[in-house]
Amino acid sequence: MKEELEFFDIKKKIKFKTMDWRIETKVAGNRTRYFAVAPVPGEMGREAWRIVSKEFADKNKMPM
C-alpha cells in the first residue's frame, strides 16, 4: 500500500498530501533522478513533482 506523501504546488503556494502518486525516473547526463509525481487537486492537467531517494523509488515502483 502506498504511503501518503506531501507535495508543494508552486503556482498556488500551498502544500497538500495525497496517496495518488506515481514514480518517475529522469536521466540528465550521467545522473539519474527519481521523482514522486502527483496531480494537483482542483487543477486539471497540472502535476507536482517531488524528489525521492533511489531506495524509495525502487521500493514503490510499479511493476511493468
How does this model look, in words?
There is one protein chain. This protein is mainly beta. The chain has one domain (5-60). Helices cover 11% and strands 50% of the residues. The protein contains one helix and five strands. The protein has one helix at 54-60, and strands at 5-9, 14-18, 22-28, 31-39, 47-52. The protein has a three-stranded antiparallel sheet. The protein has a two-stranded antiparallel sheet with strand order 1-2. A hairpin with a 4-residue loop joins strand 1 (5-9) and strand 2. The two termini are 17 Å apart. The model has no long low-confidence stretch (mean pLDDT 93).
Q: Beta-sheet strand percentage?
A: over 45%
Mean pLDDT: 93
Strand order of the largest sheet: 3-4-5
* CA-based shape: globular
Q: Care to count the β-strands?
A: 5
Q: Element order, helices and strands?
A: EEEEEH
Rg measurement, Å = 12 Å
The first-to-last residue Cα distance is: 17 Å
Helix content: 10-25%
**How many H/I helical runs?**
1
| Largest sheet, strands/sense/barrel | 3 strands, antiparallel
- Low-pLDDT windows of residues: none
The number of domains is 1
Which class best fits the helix and strand makeup? mainly beta
In summary, what is this structure?
The protein has one helix at 54-60, and strands spanning 5-9, 14-18, 22-28, 31-39, 47-52. It is mainly beta and 64 residues long.
Secondary-structure topology with pairs:
Blueprint lengths: L4 E5 L4 E5 L3 E7 L2 E9 L7 E6 L1 H7 L4
Antiparallel strand pairs: 1-2, 3-4, 4-5
